[in-house]
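quick one, 278 residues, struct below
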Amino acid sequence: MTPREAPVGCLLVCPTPIGNLEDVTLRVLEALRRADVIACEDTRHTRRLLERHGISARLLSFHEHNEDERAAELSARIAAGELVALVSDAGTPLVSDPGFALVRACRAAGLAVEVLPGASAVVSALVASGLPASRWCFVGFLPRARGELETLLVGARETLVAFESPRRLGATLELLADCDPDRTVAVCRELTKIHEEVRRGSAAELAAHYLEHPPRGEVVLVCAAAQPGRLPREEAHAALAALVQAGAKARPAAAAVSRLTGLAANELYRELTAVDER
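---
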């Protein structure tokens, strides 16, 4: 289905450029021209894109603070026959951006939803990283709690892709280096922009670099999977205890250590709780 064929009363989910304003598809531009209203995170940001391509349209703010209210309003307009385009400030809506409530409301009401392909910082970073892309997991923004972050990093059995703030990047890499200094990591920064950078190396190398040279701009972190091994049971217990002491919940921490060591998660959990009960 193309935007020309979009049924009366339809939600068009439209990816927008992640940096370079030329990285927008012809289908998206046509959808934005035809839409009765464009729902966007920041009307000023979206207007710059529209002006670049000579598009005049009605814009409606749609962000994390009004998403539920706007979802009800916009789904009603779609039900009444309007063509609504949904965009985020950059990339594909819903991917760590607003939009889920609106798509869910449309699906629940049996309304037409068309998703147009386009730019994604997640996929661009994964491909640019040189790390395996056959199995991967996107986790959004990394957790702030040290225990949760350690559990996530230690237990990853596939390539891990995450957004990270430039302010926290050095500390996050330092924590990863503490867990696994030789883990291969790629830091993808300012993708498609003038100062694009993809820096790849071990966690220890990149931690040292970014602690000394704090980055600017948008950052996507791509991390190789943890390599399972056979730690002695005593070391596995010590790793599990350290995760729990850092704030991780016992069962997820046991599962993470299990994936890393090959030991049974249930046994690790039982042994941990048995120690706590003594």
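The radius of gyration is 22 Å.
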